[in-house]
Amino acid sequence: MIGAQDGVEAVALGLGVQRLDVAVDVAQCGGAGAEGDHRARAGHVPVGLDVDGDVQLARHGVEGAIPSPDADPAEGVHQLAGRPPHAIDVYLLGDVLVDAGTPSARRRILRQLTGRDVRTHVVTHAHPDHFGSSQAVCEALGLPLWTGEVDAEALETGRPVPAAGRVPALLARMKMPPGHPVARRLREGDEVGPGFVVLDAPGHSPSHIALWRQSDRTLVCGDVFFNVPSLRPPPPPLTFDPARNRESMRRLAARRPALALFGHGPPLRDPERMLRMTD
Ligand SMILES: [Zn+2]
Predict the structure, then answer these.
(1) Residue 46 in 3-state DSSP?
(2) CA 165 to CA 267: how far, in whole Å?
(3) CA–centroid distance, residue 102 to ligand 1 (Å)
(4) pLDDT tens digits, residue range 137-185?
(5) Taking the complete model, does pTM exceed 0.85, yes or no?
(6) How many C-beta atoms lie closer than 10 Å to residue 164's C-beta?
(7) What's the 264 CA to ligand 1 centre distance in angstroms?
(8) Which residues surround ligand 1, an ion (CB under 5 A)?
(9) 10 Å Cβ neighbour count for 214?
């Protein structure tokens, strides 16, 4: 058992046994200008990691999420159904698969890609809940793997760069998903999918990327923001450099996305709310 620290309250610690459950105190995630918003929504986001490197957000963390997206949120943008819905999101932008959930999502992802033209797999950042099934999907479909420059090494080795502190160090000792060779290291401005370009958005991981389409102001922001259980910064204990992530939040919100798609949480069509959070 470990005490509350670094914004994390560990409710059970069973490294190497069965499962590690931590409740991330989202009240600790607030920043200047967003205090009131955060106080109103203070609570815990439970995060569980099992011994297979699987990461899950508990079901009650996504209240209000629709069970299965039956309409594409934007032209050429398809959201795969997850379990529970919107706990960990996977998208298809044209023929580009964006993120690949945990290792246990492999069959669910492949099943939903059946009959679809998929050419490339992009990972927004090298965390195990985003590249968990990347190796399996790339091998099954013969896809090249693309990601941001610095995260490429972590993706190839299957060793994410941890945040500072004791809890992140413990998390880093969990079994991780397998790595996979990265065919292309993406940079700001690179074109991906139907009209999207890469935006550097570091902080949550060293070279986290977002994808932006100017024509309809659609943003795929990965974990720069969380939208579970409501809009907020990602939990600091899971974030490599929270201050840098704050800068990335400001930068992305300044584009006033008409539609924001997250790594965790349902789509958001409220650019002013994103801006307010980053004041
Ligand atoms: Zn994530």
Answers:
(1) strand
(2) 31
(3) 10
(4) 999 999 999 999 999 999 999 999 888 888 888 888 888 999 999 999 9
(5) no
(6) 14
(7) 6
(8) 129, 223, 263
(9) 10
